[in-house]
Amino acid sequence: MKSFRFSLILLFPLWLFWSGCFGTSYQYISAEELAPLVREGKSLTLIDIQVAEDFAEEHLKGAISTTAFPVKSAEDKAKIDAILSQIKPEGLVIVVCPQGKIGAERTYKHLLSKGVAKERLRILTDGQYGWPREKISDILEIQ
Predict the structure, then answer these.
(1) Within 13 A of 87's CA, how many CA atoms are on the CB side?
(2) H or E, element range at 112
(3) Tell me, what's the pLDDT at 143?
(4) Is the pLDDT reported for residue 2 higher than 90?
(5) What would the pLDDT profile of 36-92 be if each residue is shown by its tens digit?
(6) What is the DSSP string of 41-69?
(7) Would you say 123 and 29 are in contact if contact means Cβ atoms under 8 Å apart?
(8) Residue 35 CB partners (closer than 8 Å, separation 6+)
(9) 2 burial class (0-12, 13-18, 19+ CB within 10 angstroms)?
């Protein structure tokens, strides 16, 4: 019986971690949902963390380049901090990452830590690489 309780004590924190109780849950927005908002000029802030070469090649119209990818170091986070004053006081804040994964999640967490409300934050599903160019190209800046 003691070994069973001991096992539960060890496994319970792991279960909590994996169930998301200690993690951040992320909110996403698809290209199909985002495109009309950009077209209609809705109040939103597009924070693009792609590296400079990728941003120069293609980005969403109105996106703020941070070149903060992969958002691991203090230097990367400082690049995001440098544009905090450009975040509009209302509307969604969309994080655009190359693939909409780890770098976007790190940026999301960092923006939360800087006081951006979770209700406003979204990650672009599948990132810039996953943008459906053949269907939605009118809001892209392509070099």
Answers:
(1) 23
(2) helix 102-113
(3) 87
(4) no
(5) 999 999 999 999 999 999 999 999 999 999 999 999 999 999 999 999 999 999 999
(6) T-SEEEEE---HHHHHHEEETTPEE---T
(7) yes
(8) 136, 138, 139
(9) exposed
